[in-house]
Amino acid sequence: MLDLTSDVADLTAALVDIRSESGTEKVLADGIEHALSALPHLTVTRDGDAIVARTHLGRARRVVIAGHIDTVPIVDNVPSYVNGDRLYGCGTSDMKAGVAVQLKLAALVHAPVHDVTYVFYDNEEVDAERNGLLRLARDHPEWLTGDFAILMEPTDGVIEGGCQGTMRVEVVARGERAHSARSWMGVNAIHGAGAILDVLRAYTPREPVVEGLRFHEGLNAVFIEGGVAGNVIPDECVVKVNYRFAPDLSVADAEAHLREVFEGFEVRPVDAAAPARPGLDDPSAAAFVEAVGEGRARAKLGWTDVSRFSELGVPAVNYGPGDPTLAHTRDEHAEIPRIREAEERMIAWLTGAR
Fold this sequence. Notes:
This protein is an alpha+beta fold. It is 29% helix and 25% strand. It has helices at 8-17, 26-37, 92-108, 132-139, 189-202, 251-261, 283-292, 306-311, 336-351; strands spanning 43-47, 50-54, 62-68, 81-83, 86-88, 115-121, 148-151, 160-161, 165-174, 178-179, 209-210, 213-214, 218-226, 232-233, 236-245, 266-273, 298-299, 316-318, 333-335.
């Protein structure tokens, strides 16, 4: 049983102690559904292990507050424990501290100044096709309708606008196979891949300012594959490249850029995820930055599910009490004062107190 009247740090610990590695979220989802269903001001619906709770107050605007309930695999870091002002355990930072704040808001704020949709979803830490938010967007897009969204991803208490897109491509160097004893009769594709690496070494990533936030792109080789046998000159070498691009580009723009950068080589797209623009000029977003972020925000230098909200036409930001640099580590922890601060700031914003 989850006690939504408990201190937000204690609630975080209770969430951590319910194992919910990706694909095993049912027990936690059951607990969240049970706790929220007891709140008369919310309408609760469920799809698989994703729970959606909504107010229906007839407000002029609706905000969506979302967080994933799964964690990466546990490495002897459950159950949770406290040392000083730190709560240790798998998922404390990413992102059960944020989920605890969501649950406290749902329980305490009965008459928010905006209608609110609280989304708790599964399978964020694994392949995109299993993502619970993607499933909701595909099967129940009306459940995610809103004017503004907040993803409670760990940001160390700083508002991060939008997110970068990501694209992986294979850049192929071609050669001609031959016996290594007569190498001059062939063309070594691995040697030819040196030109691809030269391009990457010489590349200067952009640092564009998008809607007032500075992003920093990256273009990097992440794998290289080539070779046939110890006595064969290889006829193909593949350099796998990851491009992290700012939200002033679309996926199509990113692909076109990579084809230009690697002109003369075969470029094979492998996968991509669209970026999201910051959207901080939206009235709800601007008010949120002013009230919760004290007027400060920075760019999200990575990809998050704010992209899915962007695709639905909902401006979204990242804000959560966890430290992203601690996510997925054996020593993962969250600062208890930071969790309480996030709860206080979010309550003040939703009630119009700041």
